[in-house]
Amino acid sequence: MNFDKELNARGMSCPLPILKTKKALADMATGQVLKMISTDSGSIKDMQAFADQTGNTLLSTVEENKEYVFYMQKK
C-alpha cells in the first residue's frame, strides 16, 4: 500500500503509539496516509478506537512477525 509518512513505534507501550500517531497525523494533509509500525499488541484495539474517535480512516491492519502495521488516512 502506498503511504506518505512512516512512523516507527516499535518498543513503545500504550499510550505512546497513539500519541505519536496523533502528532504525526497533525503534520499531514487531508487524504494522506500514515504507516505506523508497533510491537504493542494493544495497538490493534487502540488504533481502531482512535480512528473511530477522530474520524480518520483505518485502511489496513496487518500482523507480521509480532509487529503490527497500520495504514491510516487523515480525514
Written description of the protein model:
With 75 residues, the chain is of the alpha+beta class. The protein has one domain: Translation Initiation Factor IF3. Helix content is 31%, strand content 35%. The chain contains two helices and four strands; from the N terminus they run E-H-E-H-E-E. Strand 3 and strand 4 form a beta hairpin. The model has no long low-confidence stretch (mean pLDDT 97).
Brief summary:
This protein is 31% helix and 35% strand. The protein has 75 residues and is an alpha+beta fold.
The structural domain count equals 1
The CATH topology annotation reads as: Translation Initiation Factor IF3
How would you classify the helix and strand content by structural class? alpha+beta
By DSSP, the count of extended strands is 4
> Gap between N and C termini, in Å?
18 Å
Q: Which homologous superfamily in CATH is the superfamily?
A: TusA-like domain
